[in-house]
Design a protein that fits this description.
6-phosphogluconate dehydrogenase C-terminal fold, globular, alpha/beta, 14% strand, 12 helices, tyrosine biosynthesis (chains A, B), binds NADP nicotinamide-adenine-dinucleotide phosphate, 294 residues, homodimer, 2 domains, prephenate dehydrogenase (chains A, B), 3-stranded mixed sheet
Chain lengths: 294, 294
Amino acid sequence: MNKAQTQSDFFIPRLAVIGVGLIGGSLALALREAGAVGEIVGIGRGLENLQKALDLGIVDRITQDAAEGCRDADVVFLATPVRTLADVAAAIIPSLKPGAILTDGGSVKAQVAQEIEPLLRDDVFLVPGHPIAGTEKSGAEAAFATLYQGRRCILTPTKSTDQEALLFIQRMWATVGSEVVLMDVTKHDRVLAAISHLPHMVAYSLVNAVGSYDRYEENILEYSAGGFRDFTRIASSDPTMWRDIALTNRDALIEMMERFERFFGELKEDVRQGDDGKLFDFFQRSKQMRDEIL
Amino acid sequence: MNKAQTQSDFFIPRLAVIGVGLIGGSLALALREAGAVGEIVGIGRGLENLQKALDLGIVDRITQDAAEGCRDADVVFLATPVRTLADVAAAIIPSLKPGAILTDGGSVKAQVAQEIEPLLRDDVFLVPGHPIAGTEKSGAEAAFATLYQGRRCILTPTKSTDQEALLFIQRMWATVGSEVVLMDVTKHDRVLAAISHLPHMVAYSLVNAVGSYDRYEENILEYSAGGFRDFTRIASSDPTMWRDIALTNRDALIEMMERFERFFGELKEDVRQGDDGKLFDFFQRSKQMRDEIL
Ligand SMILES: NC(=O)c1ccc[n+]([C@@H]2O[C@H](COP(=O)([O-])OP(=O)(O)OC[C@H]3O[C@@H](n4cnc5c(N)ncnc54)[C@H](OP(=O)(O)O)[C@@H]3O)[C@@H](O)[C@H]2O)c1
Ligand SMILES: NC(=O)c1ccc[n+]([C@@H]2O[C@H](COP(=O)([O-])OP(=O)(O)OC[C@H]3O[C@@H](n4cnc5c(N)ncnc54)[C@H](OP(=O)(O)O)[C@@H]3O)[C@@H](O)[C@H]2O)c1
């Protein structure tokens, strides 16, 4: 029995991480720290990021050949932008060993499940997942072992999801300190459209609106250290990742964007009309809801 | 020479703070800590908050009678919601001693200056100001001595502002660790509409849109700890304060809200049309601007 196995009774002999960035790299670091993993293979598109991941001790070996890197893996964690997930899955599924579990950390779940499930073999299992944790940073250098501690991880099994594989991935996330929640895939995409995707669209729009005003007016962003900087932190997130999220969760996102527009428009009318009572109520209602979030 | 005066050569023998909340209370604490103030009188509307301010050692004595409390003050700091500032000023100006300096921390400056300047006496000086510092908390309990350290404080003198009084208030803010910036009053209100008032309107609308969706749908806010909670922190700010800001900076705010609506609407159309390139550019532009903010 090796040292790792004495520390945790959950163990993945061989893990492959495709996309060793913030999400993939952090899972690798956390599983290693928990003594819950044997060899970790890092797979990616560019050598530069992979080399960093190797240098930082996030993975044990690296390759740009996804099929080769996954051949002996017990678990493959897909952590590339959501619109690349199906292509990556297609490239590796034929070479996976029987019993391998494929799981992912993609921010949108319906389209991913729809695209990957038809590609599966009978002896390869898919468990779609989404850790509700992150920062605005990306790449291997952004990864850290405690990212998932005390955070939720949503798994969205479908009716074809293997129950043993599901249980195994639940234990994986519990091992890195997350609370696992099972959720219907459509509900996941609507909830995330509301609490994550919409806020990102709002933040990106806010920075563009204020920042470009600046260009031909006074140096507005010069005064924006502090509050504005903190509020708009999420607008520093990776453009590719967010383009992919916006495009794969389009319907739910548009619905939430339109809902936001109605509320914002109503508030603007209350400001324009100088409506004391309505303005107070609007702010008060919002404060109450916000204060209830633990 | 007392101990206080040896610590700092800036000194206010008697300071009156009207509205001993986050902004007023923090200035009192900071000046005291710098040894830059003798007696501090706390003035307010309700006894409960005043009593807390006294218990917390923020002020030396308290009164609900503003005129009485300010009678001997060298400096009066107005820190009540912006739409109350003129009434409060009107109530105290007749009883101020000759040479007294009236200054404020209100978040909107044009209307305040317009309303208070006509009320002034020849021997009482007004210096309009706005510390760019704050939290979403309010009341005396929210005050802390380091709030202004390393932050900017904007003063917006008009052509009738006394130069000596201006210099004195500049030194006051420098004493509590702020970098003082002088700015044209109209520019102040436009800059703040962009970097502070608009973001608050956005955050309040976002929480209302998402939180009320929750009511008849799935328990969305339950999943909103973390990112959403952090992003919407400013929507926990005081409704009275923000109603007053929205109403007194109406024109600049509406202009910025409409500007934001255009950008947000453009983004929504790009999402609807699934326009890869435009979406990437929108996010990329925003990330670049955001990353430039120090
Ligand atoms: N960031 C968050 O807050 C967060 C939270 C939850 C879930 N997620 C999801 O997690 C996934 C990864 O996000 P992240 O934040 O970790 O991004 P990241 O830090 O940019 O990492 C993604 C990695 O994937 C690699 N990659 C990109 N395209 C690839 C391809 N076609 N084939 C192989 N490798 C590729 C990139 O390396 P190269 O540049 O070398 O290709 C990069 O290192 C996304 O699906 C995202 O939606 C993100
Ligand atoms: N919070 C920020 O981030 C921030 C930043 C910069 C500037 N400001 C400005 O600073 C001022 C104060 O804001 P704050 O955050 O310190 O608010 P706060 O914590 O709520 O304090 C305001 C205080 O004023 C008192 N008050 C309210 N109406 C009054 C009246 N008519 N007469 C006398 N006292 C009255 C309140 O006490 P009672 O309830 O007992 O009346 C309260 O303690 C506002 O003008 C605001 O725009 C705020």
